[in-house]
């Protein structure tokens, strides 16, 4: 536990000391908010009003997309944080850790927890934009979503750790992760509904863990009880698997199982790659 805590503390300290990283981590989320929130809000709201009429109610597209932007931040930060493992190998820091009495499993878990904590902190910092966007999320719902954000970040950091354990170069890691991350974002319902996709693409949506993470965050943060069933269906807030609607509890269990499985694979791969 002391080894895990030491590695976790090091990653947190590096994050707060790196002002450029702290500032740059908000560039893409804010860019997506400006493009999708500002550019598409009018179009999406008009489509909802014309398609559903009075059932659309006071639909706010920015309120719909904001939880997806937070989930996107968790995904990118969690996965790309594993890049530090490759950098530590290049600078020789990893060799110093590997000759210490700390087990390789503890190193992997410490890295995973450090990446998940940094990602959760960045997601929480994004909450400061809520007043400037004219949104009105309930404070209790924001508090309730934080533990799930950490759980989702653990799962995604385990994915990044798995790639970092088998890829040797920084360039190779960045290229591979970019190819993986972008489809996970766009096929998760974070930025637009994904309920009318082609059959082959719908399969990718259903096996994408970010899909369930985004859905849980939206259902916790948005007052879904005030939305009509037609709006819920139009915005893809009713995920069905094999014709059965998935509940929030089942989605959380799926993310937890995915996190446990990825951490297991990552630690095994990390142990073999650094044996």
TrEMBL record:
<keyword id="KW-0472">Membrane</keyword>
<comment type="similarity">
    <text>Belongs to the ABC-2 integral membrane protein family.</text>
</comment>
<dbReference type="Pfam" id="PF01061">
    <property type="entry name" value="ABC2_membrane"/>
</dbReference>
<protein>
    <recommendedName>
        <fullName>Transport permease protein</fullName>
    </recommendedName>
</protein>
<feature type="domain" description="ABC transmembrane type-2">
    <location>
        <begin position="20"/>
        <end position="273"/>
    </location>
</feature>
<keyword id="KW-0813">Transport</keyword>
<feature type="transmembrane region" description="Helical">
    <location>
        <begin position="107"/>
        <end position="133"/>
    </location>
</feature>
<feature type="transmembrane region" description="Helical">
    <location>
        <begin position="20"/>
        <end position="44"/>
    </location>
</feature>
<dbReference type="GO" id="GO:0140359">
    <property type="term" value="F:ABC-type transporter activity"/>
</dbReference>
<keyword id="KW-0812">Transmembrane</keyword>
<feature type="transmembrane region" description="Helical">
    <location>
        <begin position="252"/>
        <end position="270"/>
    </location>
</feature>
<keyword id="KW-1003">Cell membrane</keyword>
<dbReference type="InterPro" id="IPR013525">
    <property type="entry name" value="ABC2_TM"/>
</dbReference>
<dbReference type="InterPro" id="IPR000412">
    <property type="entry name" value="ABC_2_transport"/>
</dbReference>
<dbReference type="GO" id="GO:0043190">
    <property type="term" value="C:ATP-binding cassette (ABC) transporter complex"/>
</dbReference>
<dbReference type="InterPro" id="IPR047817">
    <property type="entry name" value="ABC2_TM_bact-type"/>
</dbReference>
<feature type="transmembrane region" description="Helical">
    <location>
        <begin position="139"/>
        <end position="163"/>
    </location>
</feature>
<feature type="transmembrane region" description="Helical">
    <location>
        <begin position="64"/>
        <end position="86"/>
    </location>
</feature>
<dbReference type="InterPro" id="IPR051784">
    <property type="entry name" value="Nod_factor_ABC_transporter"/>
</dbReference>
<feature type="transmembrane region" description="Helical">
    <location>
        <begin position="175"/>
        <end position="194"/>
    </location>
</feature>
<keyword id="KW-1133">Transmembrane helix</keyword>
């Amino acid at each position: 536990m002391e080894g895990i805590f030491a590695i976790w503390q090091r990653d947190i300290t590096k994050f707060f000391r790196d002002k450029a990283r702290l500032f740059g981590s908000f560039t893409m989320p804010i860019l997506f908010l400006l493009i999708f929130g500002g550019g598409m809000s009018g179009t999406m709201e008009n489509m909802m009003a014309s398609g559903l009429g009075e059932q659309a109610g006071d639909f706010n597209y920015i309120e719909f997309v904001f939880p997806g932007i937070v989930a996107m931040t968790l995904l990118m930060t969690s996965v790309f944080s594993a890049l530090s493992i490759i950098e530590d190998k290049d600078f020789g820091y990893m060799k110093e850790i590997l000759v210490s009495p700390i087990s390789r499993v503890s190193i992997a878990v410490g890295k995973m927890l450090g990446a998940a904590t940094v990602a959760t902190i960045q997601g929480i910092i994004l909450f400061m934009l809520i007043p400037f966007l004219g949104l009105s999320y309930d404070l209790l719902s924001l508090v309730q979503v934080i533990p799930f954000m950490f759980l989702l970040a653990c799962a995604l950091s385990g994915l990044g750790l798995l790639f970092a354990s088998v890829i040797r170069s920084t360039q190779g890691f960045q290229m591979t992760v970019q190819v993986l991350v972008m489809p996970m974002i766009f096929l998760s319902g974070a930025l637009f509904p994904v309920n009318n996709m082609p059959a082959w693409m719908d399969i990718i949506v259903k096996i994408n863990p970010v899909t369930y993470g985004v859905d849980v965050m939206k259902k916790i943060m948005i007052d879904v009880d005030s939305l009509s069933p037609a709006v819920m269906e139009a915005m893809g807030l009713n995920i069905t698997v094999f014709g059965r609607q998935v509940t929030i509890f089942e989605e959380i269990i799926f993310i937890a199982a995915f996190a446990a499985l990825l951490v297991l694979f990552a630690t095994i791969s990390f142990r073999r790659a650094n044996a």
